[in-house]
Every structure is written in C-alpha cells, then in structure tokens.
Amino acid sequence: MTAEVRRVVLVGFMGCGKTTVAPLVAGALGWSSIDFDEVIVDRTGKSIADLFEEYGEARFREIEAEVGSELLARDGVVLAPGGGWAVHAGRLEALPTGTASVWLRVAVDEAIRRVTSSGRLRPLLKTESPAETARALLAEREPHYARAQHEVDTTGLSPEDVTRRIVAILRPTHDLNPDS
Ligand code: S3P
Question: Residue 115: what pLDDT?
Fold first, then answer.
C-alpha cells in the first residue's frame, strides 16, 4: 500500500536550492509552490534581514512556525521553508499525514558559494567569517535535516537534475494526488 502524497516539503541548508527547485517540482507535478520567506515578507511588509534586525531571531522563528503550520494544511503544494525551519526538535516527525519531506543535501563549500553569489542577504551569515559560521551551523543542523523521509545530494547537480531526482523518488513510492 503506498501513501498518498498531497504536499511536499523541501528542507536543507541555505543555498541548497529549495527556493529554485520548489517551483520546478511543482511544475512537474501540476501543483503550486510556496516559499515561506516570501509569505513572511508579504505579511510583515519587512525583509528577512530587517525582521532579524528589528525583532530578533526568536520572533522571526515564531512567525516562521505560524506560517509553516498554516501552509502545511494546504494540498497540492511544494513548500520551501527557510533553512532554519526544520531545525526544531520533532518538527519533521510531526508533519501532517500526506506530506513527503525531502532533504536537499549540499556540500558546505557549494552552499557558501551559492549563498554569496545569490545577492540575498542571510542575516545568520553576517559574521566576521561567513564560511566558518556556515560550516559550524551546517554541522549542527545536519542531524535535523537527516530526519526528512528522502534525501537528494544536490552537489554539482542542476536544478533540473535535482527536480528529476525528486520526482523519481516520489512517483514509485507514493500515489500523487490531486490530478497527477
Ligand atoms: C535561514 C535561512 C533563510 C531565511 C533566514 C534564516 C536559516 O532562508 O529563512 O535567513 O536559519 O537557515 P534560505 O534557507 O532560503 O536561505
């Protein structure tokens, strides 16, 4: 008996490609994609950098958790949370029925390269040594990401290749609904 998947959540470190890959996977499944940070920016009218600076990380995490609970109630969606969302005891274990979780694994050097070339300011990496900070943070977070049901190593892969792998993982093991 296969499980019916009604939504997919992509987890992983900053720069692993969640925001880029989510719409591609959604396109392949005939679903829509939603980026948590975009919803947070729309709702609060503030950039992620401003939210961290004005309200602090703890408040950002509360808003992120609220947005996450709400979006996880939707069907036919590929969700792209920020890299810190899954780093919460029990969060990936408590996903609603019908949710497939996929960890987009990335080598730390590639993540740093992608993050620094993207032009999107990540407040947590505004340190004296962003590369060292990223290394430490990724080491701390990997055990959390590893709790996802599936894993795709994105290192050296194009977003299209990553998408193909995700769809290939999902198709044989899940009845994809709706309209797939
Ligand atoms: C964060 C990742 C960012 C953004 C915020 C915090 C994190 O999203 O939510 O800067 O804690 O890893 P991306 O993973 O899309 O970069």
Answer: 85
Beta bridge partners of 9: 79, 101
Look at residue 2 in the predicted model and tell me its pLDDT: 60
pLDDT of residue 1: 45
| Cα-based distances in Å from 118 to 98, 112, 173 | 33, 10, 34
Distance 73 CA to ligand 1 centre (A): 22
Structural domains in the chain, CATH included, are: 4-175 (3.40.50.300)
The segments of the chain whose pLDDT lies below 50 read: 1, 180
Pocket of ligand 1 (CB under 6 A): 14, 18-19, 37, 48, 82-84, 122-124
What separation in Å is there between the alpha carbon of 14 and the centre of ligand 1? Answer: 6
How far is residue 129 from each of residues 14, 24, 97, 125, 126, measured CA to CA in Å?
16, 33, 40, 8, 8
Cα of 1 to ligand 1 centre, how many Å?
Answer: 36
